[in-house]
Every structure is written in structure tokens, then in C-alpha cells.
Design brief:
Layout: E1 3-7, E2 13-17, H1 24-30, E3 49-52, H2 54-57, H3 65-71, E4 81-83, E5 96-99
């Protein structure tokens, strides 16, 4: 099974199993990671915002305009920000690393 890593707000790196076909938001909920996802993945909020490590960002499917619109509302927006509900786990994303907004981002040092 693929794995991914969440950088939590306290700086802790949490590696978790990431079932194929689930979104990053759903994976976070499965493992108790602090991502709200208030709209349940319907692209109606930005509470599942994550910051993707740059080497992974280019491997993701392109953002759609409605995701861009929601990201405009996000806190602590970065160049590699995405909505977790729009990133679906695949074998190609095995090893994906994302940080929660407000977390110390190790690749920005």
C-alpha cells in the first residue's frame, strides 16, 4: 500500500498508509490528522488546504479553476498549496509529503 507523510502543526512528520483512490483529506481523517474538510470534499471551502513539497507538486494533476477559487480563501497560502480533497492517492504518489497550514515547512528553510 502507498504511504504519505503529513507535516503537522507541531513540526512532527507523520508517515501513514494511504489507500489508493482516497483523497489526501480522507487519508488525514482516517489517521486523525488535523485537517477539517468542512464541506466533505465538495470544493465548497478551503479547510482541507495543504502545502505540497515542491518535488511532489509537479507530479499532481493540474488545479482546476474552482480549486483555484477556493484556495484564494485559504490561510497561509504558498506556491505549492492545494486542496487535500482534490489530490487522489495513486501508486505514482507513493511517498507524497504535505504540510498543514501553519506548520514549520522543512523545505522552506
Amino acid at each position: 500500500m502507498p504511504k504519505m507523510t503529513f507535516i503537522e502543526k507541531n513540526g512532527n512528520a507523520l508517515e501513514v498508509e494511504a489507500p489508493l483512490g482516497l483523497s489526501v483529506m480522507e487519508i488525514s481523517h482516517k489517521h486523525g490528522v488535523d485537517i477539517e474538510g468542512a464541506c466533505g470534499g465538495c470544493l465548497a471551502c478551503a479547510t482541507c488546504h495543504v502545502v505540497v513539497r515542491p518535488d511532489w507538486y509537479e507530479k499532481l494533476a493540474s488545479k482546476r479553476e474552482d480549486e483555484e477559487d477556493m484556495l484564494d480563501l485559504a490561510f497561509d497560502l504558498k506556491k505549492t498549496s492545494r486542496l487535500g480533497c482534490q489530490i487522489l492517492m495513486s501508486n505514482d504518489l507513493d511517498g507524497l509529503v504535505v504540510a498543514l497550514p501553519g506548520a514549520p515547512i522543512p523545505w522552506e528553510k
